[in-house]
């Protein structure tokens, strides 16, 4: 059974994509290299990470962090798991600022953890990314995008392309100088060229989507 290491060689990915896609390669040269993500080298707890993902949904980082802090205080632990979440009832979660839907999602997560349905890091290390997605998306409140972010930024899987992400789609539109963003289906087909390093391509597409030219810097260069 193959074991999947966390992270990949970003230099190899950079060289591969530069050769495979001239348009993307031009942007890559302009933006410079993207380093390995720090999360690849850090251990993490999948259940706790999923619980936090649920709590952070549709909130600003500051508001979500405040709610998470209240929950941690209420359960007396920095670890969000079935055993610790059982220390607080639904009314207590509401007092912490957790919505009804998120409470249901946390309870479903805890139930599935107790039933052994959520793979730990050791199990994930021998699962391909589709198997991990299939194992986690049945959890209430956990969609494919959330799992894809875990695969990319925590597990460091090299070939993930989140085709539903608006930033990735906008980046692809700018690379191809298209009049509209590609649909998820169109992006999936377009991304075939980027395999087996679609994760690294996605990191660039986010940066390309957010890239703006500083007018002052442009003026300064033109006067140099």
UniProtKB/TrEMBL annotation:
Reactions catalysed: Hydrolysis of alkylated DNA, releasing 3-methyladenine, 3-methylguanine, 7-methylguanine and 7-methyladenine
Keyword DNA repair: yes
Keyword Cell membrane: no
Domain of life: Bacteria
Top EC group: hydrolase
Pfam entry (one): HhH-GPD
The EC number(s) this enzyme carries: 3.2.2.21
Alphabetic keyword roster: DNA damage, DNA repair
Gene3D superfamilies: 1.10.1670.40, Hypothetical protein, domain 2 (1.10.340.30)
Domain HhH-GPD: 55-210
Protein name according to UniProt: DNA-3-methyladenine glycosylase II
The species this protein was found in: Stenotrophomonas bentonitica
């Amino acid at each position: 059974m193959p074991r999947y290491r966390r992270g990949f060689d970003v230099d190899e990915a950079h060289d591969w994509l530069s050769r495979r896609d001239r348009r993307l390669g031009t942007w890559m040269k302009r933006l410079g290299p993207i380093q390995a993500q720090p999360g690849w080298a850090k251990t993490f707890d999948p259940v706790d990470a999923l619980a936090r993902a649920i709590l952070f949904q549709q909130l600003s980082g500051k508001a979500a962090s405040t709610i998470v802090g209240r929950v941690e205080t209420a359960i007396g632990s920095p670890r969000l798991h079935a055993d610790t979440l059982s220390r607080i009832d639904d009314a207590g979660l509401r007092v912490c600022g957790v919505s009804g839907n998120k409470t249901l999602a946390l309870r479903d997560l805890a139930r599935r953890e107790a039933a052994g349905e959520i793979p730990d890091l050791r199990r994930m290390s021998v699962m391909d990314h589709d198997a991990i997605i299939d194992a986690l998306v049945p959890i209430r409140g956990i969609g494919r995008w959330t799992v894809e972010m875990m695969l990319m930024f925590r597990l460091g899987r090299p070939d993930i392309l989140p085709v539903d992400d608006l930033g990735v789609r906008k980046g692809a539109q700018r690379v191809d100088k298209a009049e509209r963003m590609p649909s998820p289906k169109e992006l999936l087909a377009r991304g075939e060229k980027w395999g087996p390093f679609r994760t690294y391509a996605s990191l660039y597409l986010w940066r390309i989507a957010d890239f703006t030219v500083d007018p002052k810097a442009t003026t300064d260069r033109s006067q140099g």
